Fold M18 family aminopeptidase.
Amino acid sequence: MTQQQAVFNQGLISFLQSSPSPAHAVATMVRQLEEAGYQALNEGDDWQLQPGQGYWLVRGSSSLIAFRLGEQSLAESGVRMLGAHTDSPCLKVKPQAEVLRHGCLQLGVEVYGGALLHPWFDRDLSLAGQVHFRNDSGKLQAALINVEKPLAVIPSLAIHLNRDANKNSEVNAQLHLPPVVGLKSSDNPSLVFRKLLASWLGREGYRVDEVIDYDLCFYDTQPPALVGLNDEFISSARLDNLLSCYTGLQAMLAVDTPQQATSLLVCNDHEEVGSASAIGAEGPFLESVLRRLAGEEQKYQRMLARSLMISCDNAHALHPNYADKHDENHGPKINAGPVIKVNANQRYATTSETSALFSSFCDLAKVPYQHFVVRSDMGCGSTIGPIAATKLGVRVVDVGAPQWAMHSIRETAGSKDAWYLGQALQAFISRWDGE
């Protein structure tokens, strides 16, 4: 690992640690954008945009679009777009969460997305997300909260009580997943959790009269780390897909000289549950921003015809213990470069044209690249790429850094691959001529 890669990875690790929920990830990205001189926009305002200036806007606290306006007309140059998603599979706290069972206070949870459930057991869990509350003046407010302290655990059943645990152990999300947060106390169980939320907010300086609602998820408190005899791996929660959010952001910020073409980063929430929401990729967020930038319909269509989106979402690396789960010619390896993802049934939006374009960006950046095609007898996941291609009619290539244990509470990627991907994205933004 080079010094440049080491510095990049330390930034990635810091980003992962400070982003335990999608809203925290967006807040962290906004801070970096503001430090780089990007200005905030509000969708309800009239925009007066200046070429060369960077801007950002947030919808629903957990989806973000950032762009730097180019010197050239959008209709002539198109937009260099990067796409990613801010959400990861997790356990979300139910609205009426408190459960008292056999002297143990637990919180009811819903499984968000296609999570691997067994790795959630026996972890030191904490809570993060957004809380809506009424302050002491009666006004509704919202605040981000990250408890940080280990707060809960989902204990496994001892093998003595389940002798077949290593053969066939089904997880019932309703019965087996509620985390234990404490033992019975004198407080009314139905009030305990909201009282705790008010107390935690109070420590942050908020004057809370009543907690009204929240969007909170449990997360593993174990911090990200470099792993391996030679630090070959990054191990962390939420690599899918905060690695892509961070890499896309750093690529855009690294190209800080005036550009002829406009560059744009979109990071949507709700990808893990289908993207069908006001802030998901299937919603109108990106399209509405692009239409405002173009101005009129003919310019909008000309702009899209000259645009390209690189949809970044991590790929399945070849697992040494389960190599038969990959097509023998399409098993991406860790630290061998970003992966171009292809699917004949349009689960990925890559075409031969957009694949060739991305491979040319890798060549310009002097980084390796690979291909992934799922086994022909297995189903294939998807990304925001096909959604963007369908809604906008824009060219899209689906790529991503290879990783192991996708959708686990803790995932593993190569310590070189995010940097490789970032170099290719920089080449796309700064050196693509639009042809």
User: Anything to note?
Assistant: The first strand starts at residue 39 and ends at 40.
